[in-house]
Specification:
Blueprint lengths: L30 E7 L2 E7 L5 H12 L7 E5 L2 E5 L23 E3 L11 E3 L8 H11 L5 H10 L11 E7 L1 H9 L4 E9 L1
Antiparallel strand pairs: 1-2, 1-8, 2-7, 3-4, 3-8, 4-6, 5-6, 5-7
Amino acid sequence: MNEPQANASTDRDLQPSEYIQFRDDIQPGEERVRIYTSLGNLDVKLFTKQAPKTTEKFLSYVEEGKYEGVQLIGRVHGYHADGHDMQKVSPFPREYASELAHFHGALSTLSESDDEGAFTIIHDESRRTDPDVLDEIAEQRGYDFPDAVKNYYMTEGGAPQYDYHYTVFGHVVGGEEIWNEVQRNDRSMTIKKIERIH
């Protein structure tokens, strides 16, 4: 697994209020999109300040309709947008921010295929990350998780092994009950369209 890049801060002094994924409201500089699926809608806030290149590219694919008809398929760590058009686009850049992590509900560039423009919505059914797992990851990488991040992983779950390896560029803020139900019943969703909302 890649080590954190030089531009990735691992500041341990950030306060919980500075972790913008902890907030459901939309802050200045953030955008919001609605993912219309065959089973219901998901509202997602995008972190345009922390991941400007990734969100810009994602929104350009949205405007071009690249995700229409794409399946959100359940994987081990979440729902992966896996579709035919994704092989025709350029890959997402790598951008890391200390106040973003692969918490349950995060929108990530994590891809388990060759689809360069694919994304994954992180889903942790247990809603709890074992502290021993966090300690093991920290030991392997040579740094500690900030306390706020560690506590959030332990209470909300996620996929910490992907932090500083893939880009977190958004977070689900509405419709979570839909994909929780989908996960429980081992189903997939088809994206009808994605559009910006205000």
